[in-house]
Design a protein that fits this description.
about 150 residues, 2 strands
């Protein structure tokens, strides 16, 4: 692959490839990694020095691959990844709590609720949870173990 770009453009491309590979492969074991994305990251990391970005990647003899340096991992760019992961976490938590509560209502109180009404209830619950979490974070979140004694409370 031939890439013609400035040092700054290459850095942006590398950042994007790195972030994309984190999204696609970071939760996978070595055997489950999707090779074409891991290989593309390796390609860009291997070219960093050619673009005057030797502080970004180093070759790891033990694993026979290029890895990001600590300096690169500490760059502000990685804050975007952290921000994304945090946002996804909260959105998923809110959505799942709301979905759970709406389904519990349908199962416990109104088995004849329509899909549209159930979805509307979920959206209202999402708004409620979002307001609560924005105001109090996790301070009011509690895990209550389900058992027969609290099933109808």
């Amino acid at each position: 692959m031939k890439i013609e770009c400035t040092k700054e453009e290459f850095k942006v491309l590398l950042d994007m490839v790195y972030a994309g590979n984190i999204l696609i492969n970071s939760m996978r074991s070595q055997e489950e990694k999707i090779e074409e994305y891991a290989n593309m990251e390796q390609f860009f990391l291997s070219k960093a020095k050619e673009y005057g970005l030797e502080n970004i990647a180093e070759y790891d003899e033990e694993y026979s691959e290029y890895i990001p340096t600590r300096e690169y991992e500490d760059e502000d760019f990685n804050g975007y990844i952290d921000e994304y992961e945090t946002r996804v976490f909260w959105e998923e938590l809110i959505m799942r709590l709301a979905r759970r509560d709406a389904l519990n209502y349908a199962g416990d109180v109104d088995q004849d609720i329509t899909k549209a009404a159930l979805k509307e209830m979920q959206f209202k619950l999402e708004d409620k949870y979002e307001e609560e979490i924005e105001a109090n974070g996790i301070m009011n979140l509690k895990v209550i173990t389900w058992n027969e004694n609290n099933a109808n409370s």
